[in-house]
Amino acid sequence: MLTSDEKYMQRCLQLAAKGEYYVAPNPMVGAVLVAADGTILGEGWHKKFGGPHAEVNAFADYDMHGERHTCLAEATLYVSLEPCSHYGKTPPCADMIIRRGVGRVVVGCIDPNPQVATRGIRRLQDAGIEVVVGVMEKECRELNRRFICLQEKHRPYVILKWAQTADGFIAPLPKGDGEQPRLVLSSVLTKMVVHRMRAENMAIMVGTNTVIFDNPKLLTTHWSGRNPVRVVLDRHGRLSREMNVFSDDAQTIVYRSNTDWQYVLCDLAARGIHSVLVEGGSLLLNHILSTGIYDELHVEVAPITIGEGVVAPKIDLPGTPSQVIDSRSLYEIRHQ
Ligand SMILES: NC(=O)c1ccc[n+]([C@@H]2O[C@H](COP(=O)([O-])OP(=O)(O)OC[C@H]3O[C@@H](n4cnc5c(N)ncnc54)[C@H](OP(=O)(O)O)[C@@H]3O)[C@@H](O)[C@H]2O)c1
């Protein structure tokens, strides 16, 4: 059974999620203004990058629809992420909350951005506002795991994803002429799941051989949302500008001299990219797996066998005792 603080924080999380696909690299944030009797006076969320923050939108909603005579000194503002205390693209939300005279603020989790990092909370407390921190903290951090990873670890959040046959191959072997026979491992459903993952992450990356053999577009076509920035490696100048990854549909970053994983991550972080989805092939995935620097693995297992092929990265699939590796999430998207 949820406490009433948890109930309103859960609503903040629902609202925050409406900003998915539109706010990156900013966090998704939701806010709810609640009267002493539990009536919701206003709701808001961060709708797009550079736009007003959730708290500003919640007060705007209150101004338009709320009970004008409600005494805000008795109201509680719920917000899934600590209100900001600095001038960024918008003025500090903490100052606005103080000005509006709200008596109590409930915060889901602290903003790890060094420009905020508890300063917003302290500013509210210094103004005499009662502040509760950490209601549904795990869920609030989970929602913004990409943003939090960039702030705390100074690197993008990394998701590794591949599809393989039941006997452990990600593709048929190339033929003598260098051509590769086509093998479809995804279903209509799993293709949509993968394209949703593309929309959720700021960058998508594949190895050089995958660009050459598959000539992929790496766009978000089977789900609504933005195309991620494409990241490819080309140490030996093997990629032609005519290839689909260089189309005008999205930005493409090419690493030529240094393609070491730590270097690539460091450079992507410097560009403000908070997440990268790596979609193969095996050589690149094995390199990344060997560094241990990744956060999630998504493995799609198609119910077919081909006997020989490009061997899938070596990990223990779910169902084995090592289902959860180093507390990272391991998912399996099974064909129905
Ligand atoms: N089923 C799936 O989910 C899936 C997904 C993607 C691809 N595939 C299949 O996988 C096959 C290609 O996989 P692959 O394992 O042969 O190659 P890959 O991982 O796509 O590309 C590996 C190549 O990338 C270059 N590279 C540069 N920096 C690297 C680094 N740090 N670590 C690793 N590689 C680096 C190297 O080429 P240079 O020596 O030229 O630098 C290397 O040979 C294709 O047949 C494709 O169809 C399947």
Structural features, described:
By secondary structure, this protein is α/β, with parallel strands linked by helices. The protein folds into 2 domains: 4-148, Cytidine Deaminase, domain 2, CATH 3.40.140; 154-334, Dihydrofolate Reductase, subunit A (3-Layer(aba) Sandwich). 29% of the residues lie in helices and 21% in strands. The protein is built from 10 helices and 14 strands. The chain has a 7-stranded parallel β-sheet with strand order 10-9-8-11-6-12-14. Strands 2-1-3-4-5 form a 5-stranded mixed β-sheet, with helices on both faces. A hairpin with a 5-residue loop joins strand 1 (30-34) and strand 2. Helix 3 (93-100) runs parallel beside helix 4 (119-126). It starts with a helix and ends with a strand. The relative contact order is 0.12. Residues 319-329 have low confidence and may be disordered. Bound molecules: NADP nicotinamide-adenine-dinucleotide phosphate. NADP nicotinamide-adenine-dinucleotide phosphate binds next to strand 6, strand 7, helix 8 and helix 10. NADP nicotinamide-adenine-dinucleotide phosphate (NAP) binds next to strand 6, strand 7, helix 8 and helix 10.
CATH topology of the largest domain: Dihydrofolate Reductase, subunit A
Instruction: State the helix count.
Output: 10
Q: State the helical fraction.
A: 25-40%
Distance linking N and C termini: 34 Å
Do you know the CATH architecture of the largest domain?
Answer: 3-Layer(aba) Sandwich
Q: Could you say which small molecules are bound to this protein?
A: NADP nicotinamide-adenine-dinucleotide phosphate
What's the total count of β strands? 14
